[in-house]
Amino acid sequence: MRSIEHWIGGASVAGSEYTTVYQPATGEPQAQVAAGGRSEVDRAVAAAVTAHRSWGEMSLSRRTKVLFRMRDLVERHESDLARLVTAEHGKTVEDARGEVIRGREVIEYACGIPELLKGAYSDQVSTGVDSYSLRAPLGVCAGITPFNFPVMVPMWMHPISIACGNTFVLKPSERDPSASNLVAQLYADAGLPDGVFNVVHGGRAAVDALLDHPDIAAVSFVGSTPIARYVHERAASSGKRVQALGGAKNHAVVLPDADLSDAARQITSAAYGSAGQRCMAISAVVAVGSAGDELIELLDKEVAAIVVGPGDQDASQMGPLVTGEARERVITAVDEAERAGATVVVDGRGLRVDGHEGGYFVGPCLLDRVTPGMSAYQQEVFGPVLVVLRADTLDEAIDIINANPYGNGTALFTANGASARRFVRGVTVGMIGVNVPLPVPMAYHSFGGWKASLFGDTHIHGPEGVSFNTRGKVVTSRWPVQAEASPSDLRFPTAT
Fold this sequence. Notes:
Layout: E1 2-4, E2 6-8, E3 11-13, E4 18-23, E5 28-34, H1 38-55, H2 60-76, H3 78-89, H4 93-110, H5 113-116, E6 120-126, E7 129-137, E8 140-144, H6 152-163, E9 167-171, H7 178-189, E10 197-199, H8 204-212, E11 216-222, H9 225-237, E12 241-245, E13 250-254, H10 260-272, E14 282-288, H11 291-304, H12 324-339, E15 343-346, E16 365-368, H13 375-378, E17 385-391, H14 394-403, E18 406-407, E19 409-413, H15 417-426, E20 431-434, E21 450-451, E22 454-455, H16 462-468, E23 470-478
C-alpha cells in the first residue's frame, strides 16, 4: 500500500505510526498516511526556525522569483493535483481543478508582495527628524486545514505567509493528504529553500503540538466551529496570533421579482457542488412570498437531474461524501427533518451506484417547509441537503439570517436594486452575493465570515492576510551634525 510521509526540512520523513486513507467512491483503503505528534512537530518547527534566519532576510526580488516559478508549476501540474484530490476526497475532477485554480490565484496575489509590503515615510516630522513604517515577518507560522479543499484552503495561507518572509508548517487533513506533499515538492522545484515549507500529517496530537509550540508565532485554521473555537482559545492562550475560520449555514434569499429559473440553476450548483462539502455552499433557501411554490418546482427538476457517480468519471456531476460517517450524518438529518414535518421533495437516501456499492454515496436531497427549529436547519449538515424555508417579506428573511449563529456567506436573488441595498446593509454576514450564490472573494480581497464563523479579528488572504502574517514597525530617526549636537534634555519630546 502506498505510504504518504511527512515533508520536513526539504525531504520526505517516514512516520512512526500510520492511519488509513480510503477511496470514497469504493470505501476501500488506498494508502497509509503518517500520523505525527509532538516529536514530528518539534522537528518541523526546528527546520522552519533555521530556515527563517536566511529566508526572512532574503530580498523581496528573490522571494518573488520563487513565487512566480511556483505559480507556473502549479498551473503545469493542475491536472495532477486535481486527480489526487478526486481520489482521496471524492469530488469530480473538474470541481477539483477549480479549487486548484482558485488556490493558484492566491499565489499570483503573493507575487505582488513587493508592492504589498511597501511602508510609509514622513519627512521632517520634527526638525531634522524623519519617521517611517514597515512590515516585518513574524517567524514560523502554521496552518491547520480541512479535508474539503486540500489544495485551495492551504493556499489561502502559505503563499502569503512565505512571501512575507515567514516559514511555514502545514498540518493538512489526514483524509486527503497527498496533494499537500505534491505542493511541497513543487515548492522545492521552484527553488524554495529547505525548511521554509514543511508538512506534518496527523490528527489531534499534531494539532495540539502546533498550538502549544513556543516557536510558532501564528496559527491559521479552517474547519468546524467547535474546533475553530478550541484552536483560537488554546493558541491565543500561548500568546500566538490566531485566525480560526469556523462553520456556516449559508442562506440564499429569493424574491418574487427574481429570474426564478436562473436562481434555481445557480442555487442547485451552489448547494450540491462537491456534494455540499463546501464552507460556502448554499444549504438554506428563504423563499419570499409568491416565489416559494414556483421555485420549489424549478429546484425539483434541477436537483432530480443531477448525475451522481465516481468523481473520475466524466458523466458524474456529484461524487461521494468523504467518509461513511458523513454519509450517515446526511441520512440522519433528512430522517429527522421528515419526522419533524418537512416535505422531502427530492430524496437521495436510497441511492446506490452500480459497481460502487461500498462507496460513500448519497443522492441530493431537497427539503421544503423547513422551520428554524428543525435540526436540519440548525446543524451544519455539510452534505448534499438543501432546506427551503418560507418568509412573507424581505425583512422577515433578513431576520431569519441574522438569528442564525453563523455569519459566513449569503446571497440574494432579485431584480430590484433597492431590495439588494437593504439586504446588503441589513444582514450580519461577512460575504454577500447579489445574484451570485457563492460569493467567494478573489484573492486580492480577504475571505472571512462573522459571528460563529470566525474566531479572531483578521480574515484570510488578501490585504488582511498580509497584515496577519506581518507586524508593524515605526522608526523615528535623527542624524544630527556632530558640531551642532545639543546637550541632554529630559523633557518629553514634542515636534519643533
